[in-house]
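Reopening this one. Same input as before:
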Amino acid sequence: MSRVLSPHHHLRHHHSYHLPCRQPKYPSFDVPNANLNALYFDSPDNFNGDFTLLANFTNPNTKIKLHFDYLHVQLYFVDRLIATQALQPFSQRPGEGRLEMIRLISKLVYLPPNPAFQLQRQVQSNRIEYNIKATFRVTAKLASARFTYWLHSSCNLQMTSPPKGLLLTRDCNTKR
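Same output, byte for byte:
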C-alpha cells in the first residue's frame, strides 16, 4: 500500500534533517583603555614614544572554546608602522573575556617630513590620532570539531598628548 504525502509534510521532513551547521561567532577585540606615556623627537624626523593599551579579547560563543595564537599588535601613525608587539598564545572558555596589557615602544622611529610635521602639530593641539592593527589566528573547538581562521582587527584611537596621554575616543572592528 503506497502512501501519498502532502507537499508540506515533505518540506517539514526535508528541513528537519538538513539544517545548516552553525558557524562559531567571531571573537571581539577592543581597546577600552590606552595611555600615551611619552612622546618626544630626537631630531626633526626621528621620534621616541611609549604607548600602553589594554586589549579586551571576548569569546561570544556559549558552547565553543577558542584558542588564540600568532597574535601581533601594531601601532600606526598616518599609515606608518611605529611599533609592534607579539603576544603569547592563550585559550578562552565559552563566554570568557581576557584583558591583556600591551606596551608598544617606538625608539628612534623615522617619519618622513610630512607625517613628522603632522605628529608635531597633533601633539601641540592635544589630539593625537593612532591606529591599532591586530592580527591573530583563532581555533574554535566544539567536541571533536575544529575551525581555524585568521582575524584582523583595527582600532582608530584619539589620545591626548603626554604627560596625561589619555584615550579620548576609539572605534574598533574585527573582520575575517
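So the earlier flakiness isn't reproducible anymore. For the record, The longest strand covers residues 28-43.
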